[in-house]
Write a structure and sequence with these properties.
The structure is a single chain. By secondary structure, the chain is α+β, with helices and mostly antiparallel strands. The longest helix has 20 residues. It is built from ten helices and 23 strands. The strands form eight sheets. Strands 14-9-2-3-4-15-22 form a seven-stranded mixed β-sheet, sandwiched between helices. The protein has a three-stranded mixed β-sheet with strand order 1-18-21, with helices on one face. It comes from Subtercola lobariae. This is Cell envelope-related transcriptional attenuator domain-containing protein.
Length: 425
Amino acid sequence: MKPPRSPRAELPIRHARSPRFATTKTLTRLIAVVAAVVLVSGASLGAIAVNSLASQVTANSVDISGGTGQAIPHVGAFAGGFNVLIVGTDNDANQGDAFGERDATLDDVNILLHVSADQNGGVVVSFPRDLIVDHPQCTDPVSGQEFAATYKQPLNTGFERGGLACIKSTLEKLTGLEIPYAGLISFNGVIAMTDAVGGVPVCLNEAVDDSNSGLDLPAGISTVSGATALQFLRTRDSIGDGSDLARISSQQQYLSSLVRTLKSANTLTDVTKLYALAQAAATNIKLSTSLASIDAMVSLALALKDVDLNQLVFVQYPGTTGDADYPGKVVPSTDVADELFAKITSDQPFSLGADSTGPGTSVATSDTPTPTSSAADGSGGASTDAAAPGDASTDAATPGDTPTVINGVTGQTAAEQTCTNGFGD
Protein backbone atom coordinates (compact mmCIF):
# COMPACT_ATOMS: atom_id res chain seq x y z
CA MET A 1 0.00 0.00 0.00
CA LYS A 2 1.29 3.46 -0.77
CA PRO A 3 1.00 6.20 1.86
CA PRO A 4 -2.07 8.42 1.62
CA ARG A 5 -1.65 11.50 -0.47
CA SER A 6 -1.11 14.58 1.59
CA PRO A 7 -2.53 17.96 0.57
CA ARG A 8 -0.03 19.77 -1.53
CA ALA A 9 0.83 23.37 -0.87
CA GLU A 10 0.84 25.69 -3.78
CA LEU A 11 4.32 25.90 -5.24
CA PRO A 12 5.42 29.40 -6.22
CA ILE A 13 7.44 29.51 -9.39
CA ARG A 14 9.34 32.77 -9.39
CA HIS A 15 10.74 34.37 -12.51
CA ALA A 16 11.97 37.81 -13.32
CA ARG A 17 9.88 39.82 -15.73
CA SER A 18 11.27 39.79 -19.19
CA PRO A 19 10.36 41.04 -22.64
CA ARG A 20 9.98 38.28 -24.18
CA PHE A 21 11.59 17.75 -19.16
CA ALA A 22 5.72 3.87 -25.30
CA THR A 23 7.42 7.26 -23.98
CA THR A 24 10.57 6.54 -22.24
CA LYS A 25 13.37 8.84 -22.25
CA THR A 26 11.20 11.69 -21.24
CA LEU A 27 13.23 13.58 -18.75
CA THR A 28 16.58 12.29 -19.50
CA ARG A 29 17.08 14.13 -22.76
CA LEU A 30 16.83 17.46 -21.11
CA ILE A 31 19.56 16.59 -18.70
CA ALA A 32 21.57 15.10 -21.48
CA VAL A 33 22.33 18.62 -22.54
CA VAL A 34 21.98 20.26 -19.15
CA ALA A 35 24.14 17.56 -17.68
CA ALA A 36 26.94 17.70 -20.15
CA VAL A 37 26.85 21.37 -19.90
CA VAL A 38 26.59 21.89 -16.19
CA LEU A 39 29.37 19.44 -15.70
CA VAL A 40 31.70 20.85 -18.23
CA SER A 41 31.34 24.19 -16.50
CA GLY A 42 32.04 22.63 -13.13
CA ALA A 43 35.46 21.32 -14.15
CA SER A 44 38.48 23.04 -15.58
CA LEU A 45 38.33 22.97 -19.34
CA GLY A 46 42.00 22.23 -19.27
CA ALA A 47 41.32 19.06 -17.34
CA ILE A 48 39.33 17.42 -20.13
CA ALA A 49 40.08 16.54 -23.73
CA VAL A 50 38.53 19.68 -25.17
CA ASN A 51 39.65 19.13 -28.73
CA SER A 52 38.32 15.57 -28.79
CA LEU A 53 34.98 16.60 -27.33
CA ALA A 54 34.69 19.54 -29.69
CA SER A 55 35.23 17.30 -32.70
CA GLN A 56 32.57 14.83 -31.54
CA VAL A 57 30.05 17.57 -30.82
CA THR A 58 30.57 19.19 -34.22
CA ALA A 59 30.40 15.87 -36.08
CA ASN A 60 27.03 15.03 -34.48
CA SER A 61 25.42 18.46 -34.96
CA VAL A 62 22.04 19.05 -36.60
CA ASP A 63 20.90 22.21 -38.40
CA ILE A 64 17.49 23.36 -37.10
CA SER A 65 17.63 26.86 -38.61
CA GLY A 66 15.92 25.95 -41.87
CA GLY A 67 19.01 27.00 -43.78
CA THR A 68 19.22 30.52 -42.34
CA GLY A 69 22.07 29.68 -39.98
CA GLN A 70 22.39 30.63 -36.32
CA ALA A 71 25.15 32.37 -34.42
CA ILE A 72 27.05 30.18 -31.98
CA PRO A 73 27.46 31.87 -28.59
CA HIS A 74 30.88 32.26 -27.01
CA VAL A 75 31.70 31.54 -23.37
CA GLY A 76 29.77 33.92 -21.17
CA ALA A 77 27.57 35.11 -24.05
CA PHE A 78 24.28 33.69 -22.74
CA ALA A 79 22.26 36.54 -21.30
CA GLY A 80 18.64 36.64 -20.27
CA GLY A 81 16.11 33.89 -20.88
CA PHE A 82 16.30 31.18 -23.54
CA ASN A 83 14.68 27.91 -24.66
CA VAL A 84 16.20 24.49 -25.35
CA LEU A 85 14.34 21.56 -26.92
CA ILE A 86 15.39 17.98 -26.13
CA VAL A 87 13.93 15.19 -28.27
CA GLY A 88 14.20 11.47 -27.52
CA THR A 89 13.80 9.14 -30.48
CA ASP A 90 12.32 5.65 -30.58
CA ASN A 91 13.89 3.15 -32.98
CA ASP A 92 16.86 5.34 -33.81
CA ALA A 93 18.93 3.70 -36.55
CA ASN A 94 22.03 3.73 -34.34
CA GLN A 95 20.50 1.81 -31.44
CA GLY A 96 20.02 -1.50 -33.31
CA ASP A 97 17.20 -3.90 -32.45
CA ALA A 98 18.07 -4.33 -28.77
CA PHE A 99 14.90 -2.46 -27.77
CA GLY A 100 12.58 -4.02 -30.34
CA GLU A 101 11.82 -3.17 -33.94
CA ARG A 102 9.58 -0.37 -35.20
CA ASP A 103 8.35 0.63 -38.64
CA ALA A 104 9.73 4.16 -38.34
CA THR A 105 11.77 6.44 -36.11
CA LEU A 106 9.47 8.55 -33.92
CA ASP A 107 10.05 11.50 -31.62
CA ASP A 108 8.91 9.57 -28.57
CA VAL A 109 9.82 12.19 -25.98
CA ASN A 110 9.72 15.96 -26.43
CA ILE A 111 10.88 18.26 -23.63
CA LEU A 112 11.25 22.03 -23.68
CA LEU A 113 13.43 23.84 -21.13
CA HIS A 114 12.67 27.52 -20.61
CA VAL A 115 15.17 29.45 -18.49
CA SER A 116 13.90 32.71 -17.03
CA ALA A 117 15.45 36.08 -17.82
CA ASP A 118 17.15 36.32 -14.42
CA GLN A 119 18.47 32.73 -14.86
CA ASN A 120 17.41 31.86 -11.32
CA GLY A 121 14.65 29.48 -12.38
CA GLY A 122 12.82 27.93 -15.27
CA VAL A 123 10.11 25.60 -16.52
CA VAL A 124 10.56 22.17 -18.12
CA VAL A 125 7.56 21.18 -20.25
CA SER A 126 6.98 17.54 -21.24
CA PHE A 127 4.82 17.12 -24.35
CA PRO A 128 2.91 13.80 -24.56
CA ARG A 129 3.97 11.81 -27.60
CA ASP A 130 0.30 11.32 -28.61
CA LEU A 131 -0.60 15.00 -28.24
CA ILE A 132 -2.83 16.03 -31.16
CA VAL A 133 -1.24 19.03 -32.88
CA ASP A 134 -0.99 20.80 -36.23
CA HIS A 135 2.30 20.20 -38.06
CA PRO A 136 3.74 22.92 -40.33
CA GLN A 137 5.29 22.35 -43.73
CA CYS A 138 8.65 20.61 -43.28
CA THR A 139 11.59 19.48 -45.40
CA ASP A 140 13.52 16.28 -44.73
CA PRO A 141 17.14 17.41 -44.16
CA VAL A 142 18.54 14.18 -45.66
CA SER A 143 16.40 13.49 -48.72
CA GLY A 144 15.23 17.02 -49.34
CA GLN A 145 11.64 15.77 -49.58
CA GLU A 146 9.03 18.40 -48.74
CA PHE A 147 6.04 17.56 -46.55
CA ALA A 148 2.86 19.61 -46.65
CA ALA A 149 1.35 20.91 -43.44
CA THR A 150 -0.91 18.43 -41.62
CA TYR A 151 -3.60 18.97 -39.04
CA LYS A 152 -4.74 17.15 -35.91
CA GLN A 153 -1.97 14.52 -35.94
CA PRO A 154 0.04 12.98 -33.05
CA LEU A 155 3.16 14.92 -32.12
CA ASN A 156 5.40 11.84 -32.44
CA THR A 157 4.90 11.70 -36.21
CA GLY A 158 6.95 14.87 -36.62
CA PHE A 159 10.38 13.27 -36.81
CA GLU A 160 9.47 11.38 -39.98
CA ARG A 161 8.52 14.64 -41.66
CA GLY A 162 11.78 16.52 -41.22
CA GLY A 163 13.75 15.44 -38.18
CA LEU A 164 14.67 17.70 -35.29
CA ALA A 165 14.07 20.91 -37.25
CA CYS A 166 10.46 19.90 -37.99
CA ILE A 167 9.69 19.11 -34.35
CA LYS A 168 11.21 22.43 -33.34
CA SER A 169 8.97 24.27 -35.82
CA THR A 170 5.89 22.33 -34.67
CA LEU A 171 6.45 23.21 -31.01
CA GLU A 172 7.26 26.83 -31.79
CA LYS A 173 3.88 27.08 -33.53
CA LEU A 174 2.12 25.31 -30.64
CA THR A 175 3.71 27.31 -27.79
CA GLY A 176 4.50 30.67 -29.35
CA LEU A 177 8.07 30.42 -28.04
CA GLU A 178 11.20 30.81 -30.13
CA ILE A 179 13.44 27.71 -29.80
CA PRO A 180 17.01 28.46 -30.94
CA TYR A 181 18.71 25.46 -29.30
CA ALA A 182 17.96 21.73 -29.46
CA GLY A 183 19.36 18.24 -28.94
CA LEU A 184 18.51 14.69 -30.03
CA ILE A 185 19.11 11.51 -28.01
CA SER A 186 18.23 7.78 -28.30
CA PHE A 187 17.91 4.85 -25.87
CA ASN A 188 21.65 4.19 -25.94
CA GLY A 189 22.29 7.80 -25.02
CA VAL A 190 20.04 7.54 -21.97
CA ILE A 191 22.02 4.55 -20.73
CA ALA A 192 25.35 6.28 -21.31
CA MET A 193 24.28 9.44 -19.50
CA THR A 194 22.92 7.67 -16.43
CA ASP A 195 26.06 5.55 -16.19
CA ALA A 196 28.18 8.67 -16.38
CA VAL A 197 26.40 10.43 -13.53
CA GLY A 198 26.77 7.36 -11.29
CA GLY A 199 23.09 6.59 -10.73
CA VAL A 200 19.92 8.46 -9.74
CA PRO A 201 17.77 7.80 -6.63
CA VAL A 202 14.14 6.96 -7.48
CA CYS A 203 11.25 6.19 -5.16
CA LEU A 204 8.49 3.57 -5.50
CA ASN A 205 5.49 3.43 -3.20
CA GLU A 206 5.28 -0.31 -3.85
CA ALA A 207 7.33 -2.94 -5.65
CA VAL A 208 7.15 -2.97 -9.45
CA ASP A 209 7.78 -6.00 -11.67
CA ASP A 210 6.93 -4.96 -15.22
CA SER A 211 7.24 -7.64 -17.91
CA ASN A 212 7.10 -5.15 -20.77
CA SER A 213 9.93 -2.85 -19.71
CA GLY A 214 11.80 -5.44 -17.62
CA LEU A 215 11.83 -3.22 -14.53
CA ASP A 216 11.99 -5.15 -11.24
CA LEU A 217 12.46 -2.92 -8.19
CA PRO A 218 11.32 -3.14 -4.55
CA ALA A 219 9.30 -0.52 -2.69
CA GLY A 220 11.34 2.34 -1.30
CA ILE A 221 14.24 4.30 -2.72
CA SER A 222 16.65 2.66 -5.15
CA THR A 223 19.58 4.19 -6.99
CA VAL A 224 19.26 3.21 -10.64
CA SER A 225 21.64 3.57 -13.58
CA GLY A 226 22.28 2.14 -17.01
CA ALA A 227 19.65 -0.22 -18.41
CA THR A 228 17.70 -0.19 -15.13
CA ALA A 229 17.28 3.58 -15.35
CA LEU A 230 16.01 3.19 -18.91
CA GLN A 231 13.55 0.52 -17.76
CA PHE A 232 12.28 2.88 -15.05
CA LEU A 233 11.73 5.63 -17.63
CA ARG A 234 9.98 3.26 -20.03
CA THR A 235 7.63 1.62 -17.52
CA ARG A 236 3.96 2.45 -18.04
CA ASP A 237 1.68 -0.57 -17.55
CA SER A 238 2.62 -1.12 -13.90
CA ILE A 239 2.32 2.45 -12.62
CA GLY A 240 -0.45 4.99 -12.02
CA ASP A 241 -3.30 4.50 -14.46
CA GLY A 242 -1.10 2.67 -16.96
CA SER A 243 -1.03 5.60 -19.38
CA ASP A 244 1.73 7.62 -21.01
CA LEU A 245 0.63 10.56 -18.89
CA ALA A 246 1.36 8.56 -15.75
CA ARG A 247 4.74 7.66 -17.15
CA ILE A 248 5.55 11.33 -17.69
CA SER A 249 4.85 11.97 -13.99
CA SER A 250 7.21 9.15 -13.08
CA GLN A 251 9.86 10.47 -15.44
CA GLN A 252 9.56 13.92 -13.90
CA GLN A 253 10.38 12.31 -10.57
CA TYR A 254 13.52 10.89 -12.16
CA LEU A 255 14.52 14.18 -13.77
CA SER A 256 14.07 16.21 -10.62
CA SER A 257 16.21 13.69 -8.74
CA LEU A 258 18.81 13.81 -11.52
CA VAL A 259 18.98 17.60 -11.30
CA ARG A 260 19.50 17.38 -7.54
CA THR A 261 22.22 14.79 -8.10
CA LEU A 262 23.98 16.96 -10.68
CA LYS A 263 23.92 19.97 -8.37
CA SER A 264 25.17 18.03 -5.37
CA ALA A 265 28.71 18.66 -4.14
CA ASN A 266 29.77 15.09 -4.85
CA THR A 267 28.91 15.36 -8.51
CA LEU A 268 30.13 18.84 -9.34
CA THR A 269 33.47 18.34 -7.60
CA ASP A 270 34.16 14.90 -9.07
CA VAL A 271 36.31 15.50 -12.15
CA THR A 272 35.98 11.88 -13.23
CA LYS A 273 32.18 12.10 -13.29
CA LEU A 274 32.27 15.47 -15.00
CA TYR A 275 34.47 14.22 -17.81
CA ALA A 276 32.50 10.98 -18.20
CA LEU A 277 29.26 12.93 -18.48
CA ALA A 278 30.70 15.40 -20.97
CA GLN A 279 32.12 12.53 -23.02
CA ALA A 280 28.81 10.64 -22.94
CA ALA A 281 26.94 13.74 -24.07
CA ALA A 282 29.39 14.51 -26.87
CA THR A 283 29.15 10.93 -28.14
CA ASN A 284 25.43 10.27 -27.74
CA ILE A 285 23.67 13.59 -28.21
CA LYS A 286 23.19 15.34 -31.53
CA LEU A 287 23.11 19.05 -30.73
CA SER A 288 21.78 21.75 -33.00
CA THR A 289 24.51 23.64 -34.83
CA SER A 290 23.68 26.61 -32.60
CA LEU A 291 24.98 24.58 -29.63
CA ALA A 292 27.59 22.45 -31.37
CA SER A 293 30.71 23.83 -29.74
CA ILE A 294 32.39 23.54 -26.37
CA ASP A 295 32.04 27.31 -25.97
CA ALA A 296 28.29 27.07 -26.44
CA MET A 297 27.96 24.15 -24.02
CA VAL A 298 29.95 25.96 -21.36
CA SER A 299 27.95 29.14 -21.91
CA LEU A 300 24.74 27.19 -21.39
CA ALA A 301 26.21 25.62 -18.26
CA LEU A 302 27.15 28.97 -16.82
CA ALA A 303 23.57 30.12 -17.31
CA LEU A 304 22.15 27.03 -15.58
CA LYS A 305 24.50 26.44 -12.68
CA ASP A 306 22.78 28.87 -10.30
CA VAL A 307 19.18 27.84 -11.00
CA ASP A 308 17.24 27.52 -7.74
CA LEU A 309 15.74 24.02 -7.45
CA ASN A 310 12.61 25.54 -5.92
CA GLN A 311 12.29 27.75 -8.98
CA LEU A 312 12.74 24.95 -11.54
CA VAL A 313 9.42 23.26 -12.21
CA PHE A 314 8.59 20.25 -14.36
CA VAL A 315 5.13 20.37 -15.94
CA GLN A 316 3.17 18.36 -18.47
CA TYR A 317 1.58 20.12 -21.43
CA PRO A 318 -2.14 20.34 -20.50
CA GLY A 319 -4.32 17.81 -22.27
CA THR A 320 -7.13 15.32 -21.82
CA THR A 321 -7.81 11.76 -22.96
CA GLY A 322 -11.08 10.06 -23.81
CA ASP A 323 -12.08 12.21 -26.77
CA ALA A 324 -14.19 9.97 -29.02
CA ASP A 325 -12.75 11.64 -32.12
CA TYR A 326 -9.17 10.82 -31.05
CA PRO A 327 -9.24 7.49 -29.18
CA GLY A 328 -6.07 6.76 -27.25
CA LYS A 329 -4.68 10.23 -27.94
CA VAL A 330 -4.19 13.40 -25.89
CA VAL A 331 -6.21 16.44 -26.94
CA PRO A 332 -4.77 19.83 -25.85
CA SER A 333 -6.59 21.76 -23.12
CA THR A 334 -6.20 24.99 -25.04
CA ASP A 335 -7.36 27.46 -22.39
CA VAL A 336 -5.08 26.00 -19.72
CA ALA A 337 -2.15 25.78 -22.13
CA ASP A 338 -2.63 29.40 -23.19
CA GLU A 339 -2.58 30.51 -19.55
CA LEU A 340 0.53 28.43 -18.83
CA PHE A 341 2.53 29.69 -21.80
CA ALA A 342 1.50 33.28 -21.24
CA LYS A 343 3.18 33.00 -17.83
CA ILE A 344 6.22 31.21 -19.25
CA THR A 345 6.69 33.68 -22.10
CA SER A 346 6.55 36.72 -19.83
CA ASP A 347 8.41 35.08 -16.90
CA GLN A 348 5.47 35.72 -14.61
CA PRO A 349 5.19 33.76 -11.35
CA PHE A 350 2.63 30.96 -11.15
CA SER A 351 1.97 28.02 -8.88
CA LEU A 352 0.54 24.55 -9.23
CA GLY A 353 -2.69 23.55 -7.58
CA ALA A 354 -3.06 21.06 -4.73
CA ASP A 355 -2.33 17.39 -5.49
CA SER A 356 -0.95 18.24 -8.92
CA THR A 357 1.70 15.53 -9.24
CA GLY A 358 -0.31 13.62 -11.85
CA PRO A 359 -1.50 10.00 -12.04
CA GLY A 360 1.95 8.41 -11.88
CA THR A 361 3.38 9.87 -8.67
CA SER A 362 2.55 11.29 -5.25
CA VAL A 363 4.45 13.57 -2.89
CA ALA A 364 6.85 11.69 -0.61
CA THR A 365 5.88 11.72 3.06
CA SER A 366 7.47 10.65 6.32
CA ASP A 367 5.79 7.27 5.80
CA THR A 368 7.56 6.66 2.50
CA PRO A 369 9.51 3.36 2.63
CA THR A 370 13.16 3.79 3.54
CA PRO A 371 15.94 3.13 1.01
CA THR A 372 16.12 -0.56 0.15
CA SER A 373 18.41 -1.18 -2.79
CA SER A 374 20.68 0.07 -5.50
CA ALA A 375 20.10 -1.08 -9.05
CA ALA A 376 22.51 -0.63 -11.91
CA ASP A 377 21.76 -2.79 -14.94
CA GLY A 378 19.77 -5.10 -12.68
CA SER A 379 22.34 -5.62 -9.92
CA GLY A 380 21.34 -5.33 -6.29
CA GLY A 381 23.05 -4.11 -3.16
CA ALA A 382 22.47 -1.75 -0.27
CA SER A 383 21.96 1.85 -1.22
CA THR A 384 23.83 4.36 0.90
CA ASP A 385 23.59 7.49 -1.20
CA ALA A 386 19.87 7.77 -1.93
CA ALA A 387 18.26 10.93 -0.65
CA ALA A 388 15.73 10.44 2.13
CA PRO A 389 12.21 11.84 1.78
CA GLY A 390 12.04 15.47 2.76
CA ASP A 391 15.71 16.21 2.02
CA ALA A 392 14.76 18.53 -0.80
CA SER A 393 14.32 22.15 0.12
CA THR A 394 10.78 23.52 -0.06
CA ASP A 395 11.33 27.17 0.78
CA ALA A 396 8.16 29.18 1.18
CA ALA A 397 7.26 32.04 -1.09
CA THR A 398 8.38 35.52 -0.16
CA PRO A 399 5.75 37.16 2.09
CA GLY A 400 3.34 39.18 0.01
CA ASP A 401 3.78 37.13 -3.14
CA THR A 402 0.53 35.83 -4.60
CA PRO A 403 1.41 33.83 -7.70
CA THR A 404 -1.46 32.75 -9.91
CA VAL A 405 -2.58 29.16 -9.45
CA ILE A 406 -2.95 27.38 -12.79
CA ASN A 407 -5.39 24.56 -12.24
CA GLY A 408 -5.22 21.65 -14.67
CA VAL A 409 -1.41 21.58 -14.90
CA THR A 410 0.41 18.60 -13.40
CA GLY A 411 4.04 18.60 -12.29
CA GLN A 412 6.52 19.27 -9.49
CA THR A 413 9.55 21.38 -8.65
CA ALA A 414 13.09 20.04 -8.88
CA ALA A 415 13.39 20.46 -5.12
CA GLU A 416 10.41 18.27 -4.37
CA GLN A 417 10.72 14.52 -3.88
CA THR A 418 7.92 12.35 -5.23
CA CYS A 419 7.34 8.58 -5.42
CA THR A 420 5.94 6.51 -8.27
CA ASN A 421 2.56 4.90 -7.56
CA GLY A 422 1.73 1.31 -8.41
CA PHE A 423 -0.87 0.57 -11.08
CA GLY A 424 -4.38 1.54 -10.04
CA ASP A 425 -3.25 3.68 -7.07
